[in-house]
Description:
By secondary structure, this protein is of the alpha/beta class. Helix content is about 30%, strand content about 20%. The protein is built from 10 helices and 10 strands. The chain has helices at about 25-30, 35, 95-105, 125-130, 150-160, 195-205, 210-215, 215-220, 225, 235-245, and strands spanning about 10-15, 50-60, 65, 115, 140-145, 170-175, 250-255, 255-260, 260-265, 265-270. The two termini are about 25 Å apart. Keywords: Dioxygenase, Metal-binding, Oxidoreductase, Zinc.
Amino acid sequence: xxxxxxxxxxxxxxxxxxxxxxxxxxxxxxxxxxxxxxxxxxxxxxxxxxxxxxxxxxxxxxxxxxxxxxxxxxxxxxxxxxxxxxxxxxxxxxxxxxxxxxxxxxxxxxxxxxxxxxxxxxxxxxxxxxxxxxxxxxxxxxxxxxxxxxxxxxxxxxxxxxxxxxxxxxxxxxxxxxxxxxxxxxxxxxxxxxxxxxxxxxxxxxxxxxxxxxxxxxxxxxxxxxxxxxxxxxxxxxxxxxxxxxxxxxxxxxxxxxxxxxxxxxxxxxxxx
Length: 273
């Protein structure tokens, strides 16, 4: 059977690790309904494999995991309820996809691309995927971010990966639209002004197709350093945009807040015809 191409990429805000168990978070309900309400339901064939760019894997050079067999579930968080450390997402690895990612990046001028044959999936990958594709039967490959580089670099990384969509690969950037874990948490239901202004700027820039502004968000966005003291959770967005293409249709597919500072804004980018 010939696999239908995947016409869209996604940026999913995975927020806090408690997304894995906390039913009070609206984002959890959104991700649990993702397959039916966003991806097309049972009538749409699943992707051949999934490539996840997670903000929880930082390396000096692009690195893919090429796991033969089942991916390990990495618990890269501390001090949370014990039940979270018992969760498993035993999805198969995608070593063939890892090889293809390396081929595409190398052909596009990324001179050094590493392969890790042991690393499993960190919680930036398995927490949202556990909710989006709970059957854990789609091969998954993870790609790292390079926090020593900039947004344009990651946008070009995404552009290099665009052909994967023609091969039935679903590309997901997993991070958080705002990600300042040291900011005071608000308990009165309000949203911090700096977080709201950055989040609104991001939505407007994306819906207007102002990708250059997003690539240079440090200089052009309000409160950029407050929203992202470190760029690890923002760069997966640049990869998703680059892989979708310049004239992609942008949709805000979910929006909610946690603690008044953590935005769960998530976006779909559909490649132009």
